[in-house]
């Protein structure tokens, strides 16, 4: 009776095959998980990006941007605006302090001439060509504006930015009552014809004299305003400049490419992880034979184009139709591509790290066929 001979490598091969199988399953699970995360994340990024881009374009495009609303009527407000320097308080939508100083001004370059004038802006006499005898003292106070935070016109609330831009403020003459409340630290000022004057108003003004008067936009004054009406409030129209549109376009295309790349990566991870089941599921086997990279690239491109077309349909139906036609063209063109078929054994070596010496195992061959 012949003695049965058992190869000493049978146990080793079985153990090696078991370890390879478990490792392959673990890698497949990780690949499927990562691929799914990348794919879902890419969809969310693309949808969010196109939505934000469309919303920005609606504001930047003057055709789609909200039309300006013009309102005329009497302004009303309950706020009291106060000038903390001169201690003046007025119920007004705007209060403007106008400070002027009598100063020298230089005219001409080579042979300058000098004359005197009232100016709100300090003139630097140190920069004069011949500053001698034409010295301007420092300007003690500056002009400033105060605006109410809340005001209405015709029942419409005005945004603070709209109130700041309002014109129409008229002279607000100062009285003895207001002068009696003036800041005691402001020595030298006198009340002269409805304004504060530092100097001698009875004589001709001299360099360094200062005069201060106020303007106010009072409740009941008529104003004309325009802006964007939003939720019953008039706001400043948004800028629709070319620079903003270019910035929005650059960011949109950057996120589009990032979303497409994440989708392609996710599909590659999923398809590679499922490739082992190609012998059991015919569809997966055909996919592997056709070319995983090509299929992932086509699917990522087509899905990206479809998402963009769907979101932008309300903005530009013609553009959406063109994108859908391009997606169809990509699918049709991909059918004419004949990628090189990959033999099953090199696939096992490439993706599942099966040692080449184990490829002779009938178990490995059976699973890779």
Structure summary:
With 369 residues, this protein is α+β, with helices and mostly antiparallel strands. It has helices spanning 10-60, 160-165, 176-180, 242-274, 282-290, 292-311, 317-334, 344-352, 362-368, and strands spanning 69-76, 80-83, 88-91, 94-107, 113-119, 144-147, 151-153, 156-158, 170-172, 189-192, 195-198, 210-217, 222-230, 233-235.
Structural features:
369 residues, alpha+beta, 7-stranded antiparallel beta sheet, 43% helix, disordered N terminus
Explained architecture:
With 369 residues, this protein is of the alpha+beta class. It has two domains: 10-64 and 240-368, no CATH class; 70-235, no CATH class. Helices cover 43% and strands 21% of the residues. It is built from nine helices and 14 strands. The protein has helices spanning 10-60, 160-165, 176-180, 242-274, 282-290, 292-311, 317-334, 344-352, 362-368, and strands at residues 69-76, 80-83, 88-91, 94-107, 113-119, 144-147, 151-153, 156-158, 170-172, 189-192, 195-198, 210-217, 222-230, 233-235. The strands form three sheets. Strands 4, 5, 6, 9, 10, 11 and 12 form a seven-stranded antiparallel beta sheet that branches. Strand 13 (222-230) and strand 14 form a beta hairpin. Helix 4 (242-274) packs antiparallel against helix 6 (292-311) and helix 6 (292-311) runs antiparallel to helix 7 (317-334). The radius of gyration is 40 Å and the shape is elongated. The two termini are 38 Å apart. The relative contact order is 0.15. Mean pLDDT is 80; it is low at 1-12, 14-18, 342-352 and 358-369.
